[in-house]
């Protein structure tokens, strides 16, 4: 997906090209360039939609300093796959809604899309989806992580999230007593 | 802040563990997709996770389970004589809900709690508006402080029950009984334990909330002839086939810390924990709240509620969604 862009184009040509192109170029924190369907980007990401509408897209690669190349590649991959699989205007939203609405189940291809990711790649993608305001991708990735956490013990969770157990032995025993019921299988 | 320090690790490990960098907001987004049992279990992960899960702002998004019980107390030397209480399920800490109900349109003393169902409470409110009828039914959600006053009921002092399931509909139902019945609302049906007019045997009567479908399910014959010294739990596996399966049986004597049967006569079953095999009951002269764990066959004293207290003991599962529709 990496794009090699010639530099030094005349400013005029660039502006015309920018308006006409049906893709946008995104630049990861480590300087790699990715091209993504403008339509899909605008439809799936509130942040990219805002940048496209506001004209702050850089043809030489719009800087996304918070997103590494691996995660950005997955984001772009997701957008391009989405462009082919879902009719446009189906999932437009103005902001990420952290609400209590029932979750939409991921579709088969979305499941496969996240299933092939490593733990680390998955967590990177959650962050990227959140940063870019991609509600649907956030839904799909959070769903995958929650499935992975289901049935895990506190020890296993500490391992995954790199968390130190800061309870004293006595405190932990007390909480475990209170929450004994929560330690049976899910 | 603990949460921040837990996340700010040396650069190398942070780079390799993107999971450790997640913001609280994203963690909550993930946690709210888990069963309530997992979420509660993960309070044991660390202090910062416990705080995150118990934080009131996050609680609204996370799945909820039994938080505690409402109950009353009477004391003739006190003013007011009757008081409302709430105890957390742990028996410790500040009550999850302050049971003042000051958001209702009548003085707190004029409110009597009648029933609780999936986050909503049914109350009788006395002295709202003119003197007749003597009271109005009010359905409220103490977590959101929303309430609805019902059109006039019979005005008589009857048993009234609440039926509500937020997973199905934002509408609730209030059922007023002519006789005193024990009932439970499940899968859209009010289930009442009553006796067959013909032979006097116990039966469970199910009615849907339109009052159109009525069904009678006989209870297993062994229940009627059961050994009174045992508490037996049966599960209705198949509604259509009236198939009951025995789940658990325990000698009642075993449930009480004091083994003297005379003292133990006075006990009240409150509820089953919705997520697991726990039974809650109060027992003895000082109304000790006790949990019995069926799987481990363990009895745990939660706290003494005190001898002034009285029922009904209403289990409460908070519901933070705003919706509260009429009727």
From TrEMBL, chain A:
- What biological process terms from GO does the record include? jasmonic acid mediated signaling pathway; protein ubiquitination; ubiquitin-dependent protein catabolic process
Which parts of the sequence belong to the SKP1 component dimerisation domain?
136-182
InterPro entries listed in its UniProt record: SKP1 (IPR016897), SKP1-like (IPR001232), SKP1-like_dim_sf (IPR036296), SKP1/BTB/POZ_sf (IPR011333), Skp1_comp_dimer (IPR016072), Skp1_comp_POZ (IPR016073)
Any idea which UniProt keywords this protein has?
A: Ubl conjugation pathway
Positions of the SKP1 component POZ domain: 23-84
| Pathways involved | Protein modification; protein ubiquitination
The record's listing under Gene3D superfamilies reads: Potassium Channel Kv1.1, Chain A
Q: Region Disordered: which residues?
A: 1-21
N-terminal signal peptide: none
What family is it from? Answer: Belongs to the SKP1 family.
Quaternary state and interactors: Part of a SCF (SKP1-cullin-F-box) protein ligase complex.
The free-text function statement in the UniProt record for this protein reads:
Involved in ubiquitination and subsequent proteasomal degradation of target proteins. Together with CUL1, RBX1 and a F-box protein, it forms a SCF E3 ubiquitin ligase complex. The functional specificity of this complex depends on the type of F-box protein. In the SCF complex, it serves as an adapter that links the F-box protein to CUL1.
Designated name of the protein: SKP1-like protein
| The organism of origin for this protein | Digitaria exilis
TrEMBL record, chain B:
Cross-referenced CDD domains, in alphabetical order? F-box_AtFBW1-like
Q: Which Pfam families match?
A: F-box
Q: Which SUPFAM superfamilies match?
A: F-box domain (SSF81383)
The family database entries (PROSITE patterns) matched by this protein are listed as:
FBOX
**Which stretches make up the F-box domain?**
16-62
Top-rank lineage group of the source organism: Eukaryota
UniProt protein name:
F-box domain-containing protein
- Species of the source: Digitaria exilis
Upper classification of the source organism reads: Eukaryota, Viridiplantae, Streptophyta, Embryophyta, Tracheophyta
